[in-house]
Amino acid sequence: MRIEFTNYEIENEFNKVYIEEDDAIIVGEFLEGEGKCFTLKGSYIIDGETYRDFEVKITLEKEIKEPTASDIINSEWEYYEYVF
Questions:
Q1: How many domains does the chain have?
Q2: Cβ distance 51 to 66 under 8 Å?
Q3: Cα 84 to the chain's mean position, in Å?
Q4: Distance from C-alpha of 80 to C-alpha of 9, rounded to nearest angstrom
Q5: Is 23 helix (H, G, I), strand (E, B) or coil?
Q6: 3-state secondary structure string, 17-56?
Q7: Nearest by Cα to 28 from 47, 18, 83
Q8: Residue 24, strand partner residues
Q9: Count of C-beta atoms within a 10 Å radius of residue 26
Q10: Cα angle, residue 2 at apex, residues 74 and 81 outer, rounded to 5°
Q11: Residue ranges in the chain whose pLDDT is less than 70
Q12: Cα dihedral angle (54, 70, 39, 80), rounded to 10 degrees?
């Protein structure tokens, strides 16, 4: 299932995730997946450089029924992995 960020979510930057371990920001364009497993697709910003067409596989701690994109981004992640 593909889940798009709404204009409201984008305008309020709910599509951005700060990854503390890497001091980086992921700017999500959309998510694909279901249950607890999703792939976040968007841009990756680190050290002032932006990398487009970036993907992160996410496993949520708990499944969310009928999630919005910001629900997934703001929930607790059990695991994440960059896709190169």
A1: 1
A2: no
A3: 15
A4: 22
A5: coil
A6: EEEHHHCEEEEEEEEEEECCEEEEEEEEEECCEEEEEEEE
A7: 18
A8: 19, 46
A9: 24
A10: 55
A11: none
A12: 90
Say which amino acid occupies 41.
K
CB count in 10 Å sphere of residue 40 = 25
For residue 27, the enclosing domain spans 2-83
Q: Look at residue 84 in the predicted model and tell me its pLDDT.
A: 73
Phi/psi zone of residue 10: left (φ > 0), alpha (ψ -120 to 50 degrees), beta? alpha
* Beta-ladder partners of 51: 44
Residue type, 71: D
* Distance between CA atoms of residues 70 and 84, nearest Å: 24
CA distance 15 to 4: 10
Q: Give, in degrees to the nearest 5, the angle at Cα 37 between 33 and 38.
A: 45
Give the distance, in angstroms, between the CA of residue 10 and the centroid of all CA atoms in the same chain.
12
